[in-house]
Structure formats: structure tokens, C-alpha cells
């Protein structure tokens, strides 16, 4: 008996199981999720959210503040970070929300930030690596790294490693990395990391 992929793909059992799986996924996507319905209380916990002045990062920080965590907004801009700080404190009625400056494209900035955290904080229960950017101009950092790669990958990786001992001492602790679907558009070329052989395409 000759075997072929066509026979497998068109087998009635495969077709039925695919339809059932599609219906299950569709039903799950229709369901709404209300974070306020989650009863988790984070009193006594400390959380850091990078890029917390806007977008997903700000809403994560706001939710953590609602749950009574001590929240540190890790932002690049003093002005935008302060505005987010005031808004989150007002909406959550939690005054234990603080601002620390860090630029994840700069390894020196990341090291300085991590040093302050390790010196000032007794525990770290949650680290949310949310800061990131797309559509950045073609540029190199002062440390000789391609700007997008430093911002989105090296900075968060270094930050996590520098805070890892503090998180281990606070166990059980959690690290959350916010990612993007844009990874499928590229391939790994190690020369890119130093800004060589790059082709830039701005998102429309």
C-alpha cells in the first residue's frame, strides 16, 4: 500500500479533529477575560515593569498596583514616567508606586539601574520585561551595538541576569517577557548585532 501525505491530510478522522479543534479555539476566543475577577492580592510583593509609562506596560503596572503590590515603573523618560506614576497612583489608590529611570538600549544604564535596585530593594517578586521598540532608525549605541537589538534583547537579558540573585532570594518569584510576533520576519545573522549587512524596513 502506497503512503502519501495527501491520504493523511484528507483522512476523515484528521478532517473531523481539525474542525473540532477550530471550534474549540473559536469558542475560547469569544470568551472575555476580566482581570478584576482575579482575586490575587500582592500585598508585600515588589514588582518592576519596564516601559511602564505607556501601552501594555502601563496597564500591567496599574493592575499590579490595584493588587496592592509595591510597583517600580522602570522608564526612560522622567516626564512621561512621572505622568504615568501620578495616573497609576490616582487610579489604584496605591501610593506605593515609584519611578526609576533606565534606558534598555544602554548597557551602562541597565547596570546602574540594577545596582540601585539591588542596593535599595529587599526583595523582588515580579520582573516584567516589557520595554521594547520597533521601527527604530538605523543607529549604533555608544557601546557598539545595533540600536534595536540592544533595546529589545540585550538590555532586558542583562537586566534579568543582574536582578536574578535578588529574585532567587525572594522566591517564589516570576519573570515575564513581553514579546512580539515580528520575530517571524527575520533570520539570525550575527553580523547584524554590530550593525553590519542590515536592511531596514519601516512598518506601514
Task: Describe what this molecule looks like in 3D.
With 204 residues, the chain is an alpha/beta fold. Helices cover 43% and strands 12% of the residues. It contains six helices and five strands, in the order H-H-E-H-E-H-E-H-E-H-E. A five-stranded parallel sheet has the order 3-2-1-4-5, with helices on both faces. The N and C termini lie far apart (52 Å).
Which features does this protein show?
204 residues, alpha/beta, five-stranded parallel beta sheet
- Low-confidence spans: pLDDT under 50, at least 5 residues? none
Measured as a percent range, the helix fraction is 40-55%
Total beta strand runs: 5
Largest sheet: 5 strands, parallel
| Discrete helix count | 6
Distance N to C terminus: 52 Å
Q: List the secondary-structure elements in sequence, H or E.
A: HHEHEHEHEHE
Keywords: Membrane, Oxidoreductase, Transmembrane, Transmembrane helix
Transmembrane segments: 6-25
Protein name: Retinol dehydrogenase 12-like
Pfam family, one: adh_short
Topology of this protein?
Blueprint: H1 5-9, H2 12-30, E1 46-50, H3 55-66, E2 70-75, H4 78-92, E3 97-101, H5 107-120, E4 126-129, H6 147-169, E5 174-177
Parallel strand pairs: 1-2, 1-4, 2-3, 4-5
Helix pairs in contact: 3-4, 5-6
